[in-house]
Specification:
The protein has 198 residues and is α/β, with parallel strands linked by helices. The protein has one domain: Rossmann fold, CATH 3.40.50.360. Helix content is 42%, strand content 18%. It has six helices and five strands. It has a five-stranded parallel sheet, sandwiched between helices. Strand 4, helix 4 and strand 5 form a beta-alpha-beta unit.
Length: 198
């Protein structure tokens, strides 16, 4: 299967990216095709539709094509003041040409402390209408992220081991949704739904 992992932190070398790379290693080990999209390296400041940016930003064109090829998505992002980062919301607002339509997505928020749940609720409530993205029922909040996943090969604590097991089990569920939703994407109803949001 083909996975896109989206790192939704606006910062370079973030804790979100650490989680992304851990998941990338798991999926690559299972011989899946994996693309890692780092939103901190993309200029999404122009409030234009992604298709309108293609001639201006080659990197955005590349991302659009990567998303079109993807079967499953993993969105990983920090929570800022109870919200998902603007860069994540901009990314989703530009992805309304069917790139992520009827594709299952696993949401993972990260927090340096004990927060992280409000940003998940925000994205579930606001970002599926025109993208037609399909968030799976499962989601993860990785709290105290600085103390987990620091050594990819060995857990450093009980909490670290639990985090790794939760990630792996949710990736298994995501894969099954990817298989199931393939039928929806191949259906004639897909083009009808996509035309309704343009």
């Amino acid at each position: 299967m083909n996975y896109s992992i989206i790192c939704g932190s606006p910062r370079k070398n973030s804790e979100s990216m650490k989680v992304c790379k851990y998941i990338e290693a798991i999926l690559t080990h299972k011989r899946h095709e994996v693309s890692l999209i780092d939103l901190s390296s993309i200029d999404l400041s122009q409030k234009k539709h992604i298709e309108q940016q293609l001639h201006e930003q080659p990197d955005v064109k590349g991302i659009s094509n990567i998303l079109k090829m993807s079967t499953c998505l993993v969105l990983i992002f920090p929570e800022y003041n109870g919200m998902a980062p603007t860069v994540v919301k901009d990314f989703l607002s530009f992805s309304t040409s069917g790139e992520i339509a009827h594709k299952p997505a696993l949401l993972i928020s990260v927090s340096s402390g004990l927060g992280g749940c409000y940003s998940l609720a925000e994205l579930r409530m606001n970002s599926h209408q025109n993208t037609l993205i399909c968030y799976i029922p499962n989601q993860l909040t990785i709290r105290k992220v600085g103390s987990v996943l620091n050594d990819f090969n060995e857990a450093s604590s009980k909490e670290d081991l639990e985090t790794r097991n939760k990630i792996k089990s949710n990736l298994v569920i995501l894969e099954e949704y990817g298989k199931a939703l393939a039928t929806m994407r191949e259906s004639s109803i897909n083009s009808i739904l996509l035309s309704s949001i343009k």
